[in-house]
Amino acid sequence: MLVIKDLQASIEDKQILKGINLTVKPGEVHAIMGPNGSGKSTLSAVLTGNPAYTVTGGSVEFYGKDLLTLSPEDRAHEGLFLSFQYPVEIPGVSMVNFMRTALNEKRKYFGQEPLSAADFLKLMREKRSIVQLDNKLASRAVNEGFSGGEKKRNEIFQMAMLEPKLSILDETDSGLDIDALRIVASGVNTLKSKDNATIVITHYQRLLDYIKPDFVHVLYKGRIAMSAGPELALELEEKGYDWIKEQVDSQQ
Amino acid sequence: MNALQQYIDLYDEHRELIEQQSPALLNAVRADARERLEGARLPRKGSVDFEATDLEAVFAHDYGVNINRLPFEADPGETFHCDVPNMSTCLYYSSNDAFHSSATAERNIGKVVVEPFSMAAVDYPELMSDYYGKLARMTDPTVALNSLLVQDGLFIYVPDGVVPERPIQLVNIFNAALDMMVQRRLLIIVGKNASLKLLACDHTQSPDYHYLNNQVVEIVAMQGATVDYYDMEESTPKTSRVSSIYVDQHEGSNVLIDGITLINGFTRNNYHVEVNGENAETQLLGMTIASGEQHVDSHTFISHNAPRCHSNEMFKYVLNDNAVGAFAGKILVKPNCPRVEAYQGNRNLCGAPTAKMYTKPQLEIYTDDVMCSHGSAVGQLDEEALFYMRTRGIGLDEARRLLMQAFVADVIDGVRLDALKDRLHYLVEKRFAGTLSNCAGCLAACRKN
């Protein structure tokens, strides 16, 4: 579904991604790990079309479409989802209004009628239970005053509502206690199917105990330095990144 | 050039005619007004408290003045459909410069008095002479001009202890087939422990003509009275408005004034609140949504003249295109007014680099042991929030609309009339979506028929 070729990107003239190659197929879970500043979050930002970043080379195909020419909203309609590392608070915009607008914009994109209020509320109720999100939170402003755990659960709730084909979870485990981590991970696993795929960006093996990856990639200095099976994550947990860094640096 | 001169000349020439058709107590103050206008000048852009606004230019246009009191519309209440679900107001109209009551006004059985000055001068001569022109300051040339030319007005009186069931709605309509200036004038007296909810809507039906409403509103809130005054403008790019609202608050009174501008041409709103009694509470709210070439300027002055009072002021502007907004607000706490709490805020959103906002918050405090604050901010839409919404599939335009709506939501939520609050949320949504036609917001919904 996703084919990334030699992707290069910069922010404020600083080159961050220096040639990423990655292919994701339906049903797969990819973990992207790597030391701080290696470009993990930049990759998710570039894939979702954050205007702060400039693509300076390479290509990204999503189901045969040139992803990089689509607006962020159209990428979402086509089935791309990002769970933010730092979900944004939007005071004054209620979760209900936010979700209804998002869902109906997608339906409009595909030439469908808006959801009726009753159907929408039923859907909210159903999806909320996946991450045990309180009804009170759903009636509040988007992320406003939510705890760290609530924000992350809210991200997965939105993912459940939008039913994306490819979800990128950007450090979804950061700021979560063990219980919240379990709830979030079980939510992600519930939503997993043979038709969708997940890219998990994380620093720690811990999350991967719950969300089992098929592939683990290590990002370093804007490139994928190593790709392997799930055993690589365990190795990293034990040995850290230094041995990979040395390997890459000596090659340069 | 002196824009005032044309109106002074008009008065000098037609003084008898003007006075013939007016109640005597309106005539009684004209000499004073005339004297103050001698040699007076309207503020030009750049004068103090007029940093962005040129009143001289607004009045310089050659407006017609209806000194002959020719009727324009026999009774707007008859031709305009006025039954609106959920609001159940007692509805009154003014078309151009004349007042009309409507069928729904009859619901107002005998308790609240709403009548033109011409009648009130006969029915309530003492109240009229005690309060007419007593709060408004003739030192302001626009107030003097109103006093010089005004021939009628609306008198609203809630006797002591009366708490009316229904809000009163006053729909002001411009529909004359010529460029016209009117001197609208309201005198509102709310008695001891009485209450009034008043919604005034300014509309313009004819988009082709230039109109100017130079209005003066005087509000007296007696001991323990509660007054809600919602003042909404939804006119046209060729409509100008200079409005001066004066409030006198007695002990324990509770006054809320909410100025809302959805569509207009040029507007200057002056709010002057004198808090004269202890334990009084004041809410002064403002919401402006402006685009195109709209110009909205608010000037507020709250004077705390008594101890243990509480005032809260919040004005919010959303400006797009070439719109210009201005806010100058001052809170004064006089000596010997301990335990006053007074807060002022002005927050503004510029949605386009060409939109301009001028803001000047001021505090002047002469008593210790008070709690006061003022703050002002001008900003743009939150880029992070916009991107977040876009990744959820909400298009840029829609995301901008949601954020702009959210920005003014708390000011709307300050409305103490549930039906109006809901209606305002709806109107603001339509306004940002660009589907608010002139009159669509009028609760009278006359165009539906």
Order of neighbouring strands in the sheet with most strands of chain A:
6-9-10-3-11-12
Helix content of chain A: 40-55%
- Detail the poorly predicted runs of chain B: 78-86, 439-449
Number of strands of chain B: 20
Radius of gyration of chain B: 21 Å
N- to C-terminal distance of chain B: 46 Å
* Largest sheet, strands/sense/barrel of chain A: 6 strands, mixed
Distance between the termini of chain A: 32 Å
Q: Classify the secondary structure makeup of chain B into a structural class.
A: alpha/beta
On the 0 to 100 scale, the average pLDDT of chain A is: 93
Largest sheet of chain B, if any?
Answer: 10 strands, mixed
Mean pLDDT of chain B: 90
Please tell me about this protein's structure:
The complex is a heterodimer of chains A (252) and B (449). Chain A is an alpha/beta fold. Among the domains of chain A are: 26-41 and 171-180 and 195-252, no CATH class; 87-163, no CATH class. Chain A is built from 10 helices and 12 strands. The radius of gyration of chain A is 18 Å and the shape is globular. Chain B has 449 residues and is of the alpha/beta class. Chain B has one domain (3-381). Chain B has a 10-stranded mixed sheet, with helices on one face. In chain B, strands 3, 4, 6, 7, 9, 11, 13, 15, 17 and 19 form a 10-stranded mixed sheet that branches. The longest helix of chain B is centred in the N-terminal third of the chain and has 18 residues, at 3-20. Chain B is globular. At the A-B interface, helix 2, strand 7 and helix 3 of A face helix 9 and helix 10 of B.
